[in-house]
Write a structure and sequence with these properties.
The chain is of the alpha+beta class. It is about 30% helix and about 25% strand. It has helices spanning about 35-50, 55-65, 110-125, 140-145, and strands at about 25, 70-75, 80-90, 95-100, 130-135, 150-155, 155-160. The chain has a seven-stranded mixed β-sheet with strand order 1-2-3-4-5-7-6, with helices on both faces.
Length: about 180
């Protein structure tokens, strides 16, 4: 995988592995907005309901309002939309946003593989990565395993950051990029 910057700002593409369940990143297009908005609603629903903040319209509209083809990559597995990730420059760092995986793709190592790919690129650029995750979200453990630490928090959000080159605590059986556990 090249860690060079593409002219459109999205993550570079990845060739499909020979493994039947390989994954690829492709640039987002306008037609991806609604499927991603639906994915966001499904993925975030339980955490937002737990926090008393779920709103059928707002959960989708927040994605529509902040969607950027330039910085968003679509995660594909076997030609099926499996998720998305956005890396947007702001405030002297890269912001990891809209990182969602379809529920049936979670817990298989795909999130770690995609996150490693993203972090390889930001490390090569010498950039700190920031993100926010909902209080109590299982996703926080993923980010902590990849070197993110808490910067600040409030009753709803946990703001985390990762300096460039921070070593991840990944298990020995971690996926290599382009592979997915079956």
């Amino acid at each position: 995988m090249s860690s060079g910057t593409r002219p459109d700002g999205a993550l570079p593409g990845r060739a499909t592995s020979a493994h039947a369940a390989g994954w690829v990143l492709r640039s987002a297009v306008i037609a991806d907005i609604e499927p991603i908005a639906e994915l966001r609603a499904a993925v975030m629903r339980a955490d937002l309901e737990r926090l008393g903040r779920y709103d059928e319209h707002r959960v989708r509209q927040r994605l529509r309002d902040s969607f950027s083809r330039r910085y968003t990559s679509i995660i594909m597995v076997d030609r099926e939309l499996a998720g998305c990730v956005t890396i947007r420059p702001a405030d002297g760092r890269q912001w990891l946003e809209h990182f969602y995986l379809a529920p049936h793709r979670q817990g298989q190592g795909l999130g770690s593989a995609v996150l490693r790919t993203v972090l390889e690129r930001t490390d090569a650029q010498g950039m700190t990565v920031g993100l926010n995750v909902l209080q109590g979200s299982a996703a926080r453990r993923l980010y902590e395993r990849h070197g993110f630490v808490v910067e600040a928090q409030d009753p709803v959000d946990v703001f985390m950051m990762r300096p460039p080159g921070t070593l991840a605590s990944t298990p020995a059986n971690a996926l290599t990029p382009g592979q997915l556990r079956t």
